[in-house]
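Researcher: Let's try something more involved. This one mixes different molecule types, so please make sure each is placed in the same coordinate frame as the others.
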Amino acid sequence: MKPALSKIGEQMSHLTGVRAIMKDINETLRAGAGQKFINLSAGNPLILPEVEQLWRDCTASLLASSEYGEVVCRYGSSQGYAPLVEAIANDFNKRYGLNLTERNILLTPGSQSLYFYAANVFGGYTSSGDLKEIILPLSPDYTGYGGVTLCAEALIAYKPTLDIDFSAHKFKYRPDFSQLEITENTGCVIFSRPCNPTGNVLTDDEVKKIAALAAPFNAPVLIDSAYAPPFPALNFTEMTPVFGDNILHCMSLSKAGLPGERIGIAIGDEEWINVLECFQTNMCIHPSRYGQAIAARAINSGKLAEISEQVIRSFYQNKFTVLEENLFAAMPKDLPWFLHRGEGAIFAWLWLDELPITDWELYQELKQVGVIVVPGSSFFPGLREDWLHKHQCLRISLTGSDEEIAIAMQRLAHVAQQVYQRAAVSA
Ligand SMILES: Cc1ncc(COP(=O)(O)O)c(C=O)c1O
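Model: All components are placed in one shared frame. Result:
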């Protein structure tokens, strides 16, 4: 029976961005029984043995402790499990010379929920009817921001400038400060650093400049650090987390091997944290505590930061090198393709300038040769204007074997060459 939905019901029952593509991918995989696909679409991290062992050991320690009953058999505080709050405060105070107290920290069931709370607490209509905007200062960015606001018109993204090295076939996005508008209408600002999908890392100066623009309006700047140091430390270039009065530093343990346990972390101003905590209480009472209890152990022992730096980072950095080397060896040098500088995260981002077909059509052609990537147009939530570039990019996940990545890049180069050639012949 077709349900009668509210306006919000209608909005929230649509799949947005990459989730919509995932449906197509899953159907393709199911229908193509027998056909072998190289699936480089996933944002799901691979299971690395050292990382799995860490979580197994922390679980064994929890099971053996008297704390176990308290963790799973009792409700707890909405702010999160106290030993994890304390572990984070201690770790960050020591590591970054901060003065955090437990009032500066909120734990959420995954960081996606944290963006949902923040987008609706700080963005949308005020009681006096003003629209507070949620600003994405550099588009493309995480596709999940497209689904977090209950007020779709509040989400506004800005086109970047492109720093292109033509001869090296490389490029990098930078925030376009000449266009970016942060005003009294700004409710909050969100960006990922390192960025999903591009692997871009905004410089410390760029981050400070964005925070300074938002400061006079008391607008929180949420820095989505799902791939940042100290865990999972998926930065391949030097970067330091930036803290400040109007910065909400947001983290996730998903890429540190714990996506199934759903742990998000917000660090910031006490009053902002309090508002988000109230939202959380109304929404789900509190996040589940088993994952939080094992995370407290992994952080207190120093193991999580250590494994992140020594295992997780090098694993994905090597994957990026394999991808880059194979892509550069296979792609024709005379075509206008550019790989985004691989500064972090678990993806490569390829821009095919003057692509004669859309990214979605290219995605379909790649499926025909057994390669699945994600069409780039899914990663521009909030960007209203039509920009050809939106339909000229692909996100390629680094979650394949070296051999799969190598084969996929050869096939991708072959298909790209054919696509440009077809257009040249018919012109
Ligand atoms: C940039 C970014 N932010 C947030 C998330 C959501 O992560 P989670 O809800 O698992 O913490 C993801 C997941 O892929 C991501 O890539």
